[in-house]
Design a protein that fits this description.
The chain has eleven helices and eleven strands. By secondary structure, it is α/β, with parallel strands linked by helices. α1 crosses α3, α7 crosses α11 and α8 packs parallel to α9.
Length: 310
């Protein structure tokens, strides 16, 4: 009987350790806070889970990457191309937190006098927590106005232009950070006409929504920082995200505001985990779109590379 009870308890603990991600993910996406259990048992079980994921289930992919490097001695970029769909590539090419981005716009200063407004959807909600926590250490005002399940296509639920205008009118904030688009990958009806996503008419319609925000910022002498969208798990969505990023980049270049280029870790291919200081760290949620608090923190770092805090 004792052996039976021991087996039941042990199996239950292992099951919880291996399959409790859904509840943990719900908590983190809702409150954008980490929930960690540091007991010895859960820590060991977590390590066992990582071992299964990285050392057992995907050993074939890792061996293929090793063979590519062994046979041709290519650069890291060449390995990435030849192993394009090997999701464990980052296990062998560890992420560098100080990796340079491609954003070339003039570095702007943040101070107690100018502050920051954050606009966007659920991605910005999470990134915004990381940005605001950092700015609070320097006593810089940070308003996170991001709202989940929103975008620029439809104003009835959440009108970004109206929200931004009201906020700027009631504050002295001079910096606007925007991360939006994952809810805008759809066709839209305008004046009883269906505009197909990615087509010229759709792009023109979407550009007008962005121009509204730019105009409001200019009228209030405020700076804009526009985030590139990260890669997601779904290939079809990724193709649409590429189109949106092209629109974001071209408009930023035309209107001379900062386009925040994300680390290649978050744009080249999809990974649930990365390796930092020899340890596997989860950065993405199970839905393949959202991030863990660590992932949101990584995205926030690309914003801080584009500014100077005084």
């Amino acid at each position: 009987m004792r052996e039976f009870v021991f087996i039941i308890i042990s199996s239950s603990l292992i099951f919880i350790a291996l399959f409790n991600d859904s509840l943990k993910e719900y908590y983190e996406q809702t409150y954008h806070k980490s929930i960690e259990f540091e007991s010895g048992i859960t820590k060991k079980l977590s390590e066992f889970k990582s071992f299964l994921e990285y050392e057992v289930f995907f050993v074939k992919e890792k061996e293929e990457i090793k063979e590519i490097a062994k046979e041709t001695k290519p650069t890291k970029d060449e390995i990435s191309k030849k192993a394009k769909n090997k999701i464990l590539l980052k296990c062998y090419l560890p992420y560098k937190l100080n990796e340079n981005t491609l954003a070339k716009a003039k570095t702007l200063s943040l101070s107690k006098e100018n502050g920051v407004i954050l606009l966007g959807d659920s991605l910005m909600q999470g990134v915004g927590v990381a940005i605001c926590n950092n700015l609070k250490k320097h006593n810089i005002k940070c308003e996170n106005l991001a709202k989940q399940s929103t975008g620029l296509l439809r104003k009835k639920y959440y009108d970004y232009a109206k929200v931004l205008k009201n906020s700027l009118n009631n504050s002295k904030i001079k910096n606007i950070v925007i991360l939006v688009g994952v809810n805008d990958l759809w066709d839209v009806n305008e004046n009883n006409k269906l505009l197909i996503f990615g087509k010229s008419e759709w792009k023109a319609f979407y550009a007008k929504r962005i121009d509204e925000l730019v105009k409001i910022a200019r009228e209030n002498d405020a700076n804009i920082f526009w985030y590139e969208l990260p890669v997601v798990k779904n290939d079809e969505q990724n193709e649409k995200i590429k189109i949106l990023n092209e629109v974001f980049y071209e408009l930023a270049k035309q209107n001379n505001y900062q386009f925040i280029k994300l680390s290649s870790l978050l744009t080249e291919h999809f990974d649930f985990y990365i390796k930092i200081e020899g340890k596997s760290k989860r950065i993405r949620s199970n839905d393949g779109i959202h991030f863990t608090p660590l992932g949101y923190d990584l995205i926030s770092q690309d914003f801080f590379k584009a500014v100077e805090i005084k």
